[in-house]
Predict the 3D structure of the following.
Amino acid sequence: MRRGPKFLRGSGIRFALLHTLVFVISVAAVGFVANFLVARALKEQAALRVENETSEFLDEFRQYGIEAFRKLVDAQAGNAATKLHYALLGADGQRIAGEHLVARVGSGLGSDADAPTEIPVTGSDSLLLMRRRLPDGTTFVIADDLSSVEDVKEVVAHAFGIVLAISVLLGLAAGFLLTNGLLWRVEAVTRTAEAIIAGDLTRRIEATGRDDEFDRLATSLNAMLDRIAELMDNLRQVTDDIAHDLRTPLSRLRQNLERMRAQGSAGHDRADAVERAIAEADGLLATFSALLRISQVEAGSQRSAFRPVDLTEVIETVCQAYGPDLEEGGRTLACDVVGGIAVDGDRELLVQLFANLVENALGHTPRGTTVRIRLRGAGSTGMGPVAEVSDDGPGVPEAELEKVFRRFYRLERSRTTPGNGLGLSTVAAIAKLHGADIRLADAAPGLRVTVAFPSTAVPRQGVRRGID
């Protein structure tokens, strides 16, 4: 199927033509209505003129009689200055005085035309005619020629024809101006998209600062592009870290298996090798389980099952569960929570969030460190409940604060210590699922992790005694 010229396929020309069509139709409608109203006004004036003239002639008849009335009709019919036409018909319908045309048209009416009636004569010409039967049996006929009304209608129609032609040009010009004003914004989006497709992922759509629909669209698209760029960076980082984190345990697993094959049936050494291989496999399975868990949380499918959760009870459960482990490791756990604070969420995920934060402190702080967990309700500013997990350990360098939530990201570059770098990634995913804002800050010394929940949570009064 053949397609039209390229310039006709553009949305700009189509919009301009549509704008012109609407503009022209509007002008034509105005012209039609104006022509109709002018014609009706002129006909109403003619009808009023005929009625007034009829009343005056009937007064003359009543005052001077039929003979004087006949002479008056003949005199007015021969008066070139008058615009009206007159005739007097006998009882038999024959003309007694006045104009022949009016007499003929008036005699052809089947009944009295007590009100002005438009009668077609020839072609587009017509008469506005009125008849009145007199007491002596004669009939007075008066008419106004409506050809002047038709002339005015033609003049108005001709004028609006010229206006219509001008409106086509103006409509096309206005349509192209409006189209160019709109489409250059669309073209900016297109150029940005093409640049991104070509590989320039840093390109963004420029906003004009007008805060109109296009600026809001640009803001939304830029936010989407930033999110896509962030996900791609995360994907590249995850790919690199998977290669580093899984290559080492897979290599150790292969070495253990080769050692078993080389050792033959030696019982004790073989059992040790099997144990090491199982431990490496368990570590790999734990890593993949953590990745799967993060993906499930980020998918947001669990949000539909959210229920009110007692956040106070969640944090106290974590404190009670990890208190002995921290004490055994030479650390101190201090919990200070406000009682009766509830949030909408998943209890199991919230327990995992705070458990991962405590485990992170346990794994990256020396003996003698104090780990503190605090929970406060909504403040006067309208913020929701705020939980803090802090320690007075070595902390995290400021340049690394924004990176620690990445998957597999670890401060210890050699990756010789236990762990897979997914603990804080899981924390970030769970916080995002619950609409919470999570931030890292320097506790001077140590690290402070703040989790601010949405303001939908409603705390109840009361303070639980801290668990130390």
